[in-house]
From TrEMBL:
UniProt cross-references to NCBIfam families, sorted A to Z: GGDEF
Membrane-crossing residue ranges in chain numbering: none
Keywords for this protein: Nucleotidyltransferase, Transferase
UniProt catalytic activity: 2 GTP = 3',3'-c-di-GMP + 2 diphosphate
Region annotated Disordered, chain positions: 190-211
Gene Ontology MF terms: diguanylate cyclase activity
EC numbers for this chain: 2.7.7.65
CDD domains (UniProt xref): GGDEF
PANTHER family: DIGUANYLATE CYCLASE DGCM-RELATED (PTHR45138:SF9), REGULATORY COMPONENTS OF SENSORY TRANSDUCTION SYSTEM (PTHR45138)
Protein name: diguanylate cyclase
Domain GGDEF: 213-342
Species annotation: Rhodanobacter ginsengisoli
Amino acid sequence: MSKAVPLAAAPAAGASLFAHSRLLDSVAAFTHHRDIDALDHSLALSLAELSSAQSVSLVKRAVGGTHVDSIVQCALDEQGHYQLRAIEPHAAEPALERVNRCMEQLEVHTEMIHGMHRLTVPMLRDGRAIGALELDSCMPPATSRPLVDGFARIYSNYTGLLQESERDKLTGLYNRRSLERQLQRLLQQHESTQPPVAEPEPSRPGPSSAGAPQVWLAILDIDHFKHINDTYGHIYGDEVILLLAQQMRACFRRSDVLFRFGGEEFVILFAATDEATVHAVLERFRQRVAEYAFPQVGLVTVSIGYAHVGVHDYPASVLDRADKALYFAKNNGRNSTYGYESLRASGAVGQTMAPGAIDLF
Ligand SMILES: Nc1nc2c(ncn2[C@@H]2O[C@H](COP(=O)(O)OP(=O)(O)OP(=O)(O)O)[C@@H](O)[C@H]2O)c(=O)[nH]1
């Protein structure tokens, strides 16, 4: 039997339904994104619009780390329109103290600033803060807090799922599936500074115009890993993989993108101005590994092959070139680093795969 709804309740219910559907629209819009940068922008804008805030900042810690590695802010401009911008964490140092405290203490922070209410809410996952949302608004914190809390929880859950799908379970590095997206992202970042590359050899690094950074891909493979597994067992083999991933994190820059590509193979994507720098960076890492005493196993070495990434390169063809250089290292004593372009110039390796023959993942 249907229940009569008092007439007087209808307008309030209508208004609340409208507010709920706006909220759901926003959540649907930002969870539509698979790309975390786009998701961050969408979240900051949705929260600013729904709360009519003066500004919303999304501050994020590096995956698995405690330092802030990105800040996205959505703030009203003089014309009353929301504008999104990314802020370099080092440029926001003093303001970050408050946010860092909130993330360390896992506590919500409120204060009055220039006649506005400032609300800082940590975003939690598995009992630790992955970042924080900060809102400057005319509304008192008690009014805006449920909305900010809700967005923080949805963001944390959703990015947790996204990260699980793009990370290797053992090491926490990116997995093979994420290479194409990360490569595109890095190329877009550096596209404007990359000199035009002559066809039909997209792999050849352009002239180093005013030291503009270019993108490079390196493949790193543990030498005689089967022997390590056979001698010490798979658990020690896994431990070697884990420790190597830790060394990679410690040795490469935060902006370098690290992958466990499968088994005992790793990939590094990074920007550098010239081949000599690339070689020196990779050699430094190879030597560091060769000097490290792995528990029980002792000394372990790695072989490295690398190649330049052209703006219009397919991931599979870059991988093929770097793999040729790696293969050369494996066949020439291991525990060494080789670049495809130099090997090609000296005639030590042949042509890479034809554009039609590539496997596009
Ligand atoms: N412990 C462990 N072993 C793995 C994992 N993935 C692959 N392997 C093993 O890694 C070994 C790789 O062996 P190969 O491809 O012959 O290479 P290698 O022994 O390192 O020899 P080179 O690369 O030629 O120096 C195989 O025995 C795989 O079973 C993993 O996640 N954990």
